[in-house]
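Input sequence (125 aa), recorded before submission:
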Amino acid sequence: MKNVFWSLGGLFLISLFGCSNKEEIPAGIVEPQRMISILTDIHQLETEVASLKLTYDSSTALYKQQQQLLFDKHNVSDSVYTHSFEYYLEHVEMLDKIYAAVVDSLSLRRNMGTRKEPEESGESL
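Predicted structure, token format:
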């Protein structure tokens, strides 16, 4: 069932960016689809760190450490991410589309995380 949700989410992202009049993304800027993935992970990380109820200093240190791991996972440097985010801030229509997909992805993750699968709950289909 989870694969169906991910497949639908993937199709949504492809249709969102595949059929639009693409503006040429300059060299050194993270592509929109990749930016969606990075931003989704960043916002999820922010939520997870905030939920730990740590002191400000501890949560800031943990966030920075985990953020670097996130950038490593996505094979992007913090400076390239920052430069890309600034680019999208100047191109609001593209940023709106990116964040629409980020919100959908976060909602999907939340729904998949809170919903029990039938085999986990002992229920059958």
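Checked by second reader. The radius of gyration is 17 Å.
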